[in-house]
Amino acid sequence: MKISIITQGKFHSENLAKILHKKKLLNKYILFYFSKLINKKLRSKTYCANLLFIFYKTYIKFFKKDPPEAVNWFLKKNYENYVLNTITNEKILHIWPDCSDKIADHCKKNSIISVCEASSAHPRYKKKIVDSEFIKFKLKPETYSDKIYKDQLNFFKKSDYFFAPSNFVVNSLIKNGVAKKKIFFTPFGVDTNFYSKGKYKKKDKKIRIVCVGDFNLRKGSFYILKAFNQIYDNNLELHFIGAVDSDLRKICKKELNDKRIKLLGTMNKLSLKSHLKNYDIFCLASLEEGMSISMIEAMSMSLVPICSENTGAKDIIKNGYDGFIFKIRDIDGIKNSILKLKNNPKILNQMSKRIRKKVCKDFSSEKYQQRVFLNYKKILKLI
Fold it and tell me: Per residue in 13-46, pLDDT tens?
């Protein structure tokens, strides 16, 4: 029984590919682009549509912005054609929803089992909640183009099974018509040996907060800024690591004048790990996110999490014991959590140790791989 993985971005797919390869189930690992960080053992199984990716990167470099809908649709459809020309004798395709409907039709026509990697909430829920945020700030919604939204809805209707990383995603799928028996709960994991502070010692008494992920409306960055600006303490710092949305930068011009706040831009994996050692608290206020990998990486680095309930955090954090969870858009919830940690160094230290211990126990790469394999065993019995 051979399984191929199809995804435009690498995301956590390498971890999935590793366990399928180890169990001799992986046929092909098909990506939009090649990364030097891909595990060497997987490279003989890896296929990449690099010309399309080069075109995409060249467009961004030349025009200084993302391609318009027509260009993105062209790239998407050509990547799907590349996939269909690359797959061979698969019995199962594990597919990320950003490369979807055409491949789902191929699966139906050729009696191939399709497994949707539902790493975010159902498209209908995602569009509704994120579009409302754009409208709130008098911006044109950018969650999906009409074509891609329709394409993803069709894909979710046609998929045979779903891997969902959090109960937040599971519930969004069920509420939008996906049968519970088709959903396999599969929380993510990270390399806890790599993401570790080790014997690191702080050089000062400042409390530093970091948000890893794009600085944009979907990530709830606005609400973190608002909460932080209400706390007047020069021993607090707030840093954002990730691409910066120009519209949100303009909206938050006043908040960003605070000298304690820095936008550090994007970082590669090694730089990110090196930077995370300097922080005490990880904050994520996403309106919608299946289960944030950066959140788990930060927890593994012993950063105490303050996260919205729509990040997958509720499946990891015990509120008030090893981190804090707040409702989306809850500025007071964010502020009060920061203040509790700032004013109680002992609690901060205890939570730091507890969350690291929990991630090592239940959310390591090995635990994720075990969950993947067990869920695939269940699927194979159903076929």
Answer: 988 999 899 989 999 999 988 877 788 889 999 9
- What are the residue boundaries of the structural domains of the chain, listed by start? 3-189+365-382, 207-362
Residue 377 CB-density burial (10 A; 0-12 exposed, 13-18 middle, 19+ buried) = exposed
Is there a contact between 284 and 303 (Cβ–Cβ < 8 Å)?
Answer: no
The CATH classification number of 3-189+365-382 equals 3.40.50.2000
- Cα(186)–Cα(293) distance, rounded to whole angstroms? 13
**Residue 192 DSSP symbol:** T
Separation of alpha carbons 276 and 30, rounded Å:
31
State how far the Cα of 318 lies from the Cα of 247, in Å rounded to an integer: 35
190's CB contacts (< 8 A; 6+ apart) are: 293, 296, 297, 300, 359, 363, 364, 365
CA-only gyration radius of the chain, Å = 21
Give the full edge-to-edge strand order of the sheet including 161-164: 46-48, 26-31, 3-7, 92-95, 113-117, 161-164, 183-185
Under 8 Å CB-to-CB from 198, ≥6 apart: which residues? none
Please report, in angstroms and rounded to a whole number, the separation of the first and last CA atoms in the chain: 11
Nearest CA to 305 among 263, 276, 332?
276
**Do residues 341 and 348 make contact, with C-beta atoms less than 8 angstroms apart?**
yes
Instruction: Write down the H helix ranges in 112-215.
Output: 123-136, 146-158, 167-175
CATH of domain 207-362: 3.40.50.2000
**pTM here?**
0.92
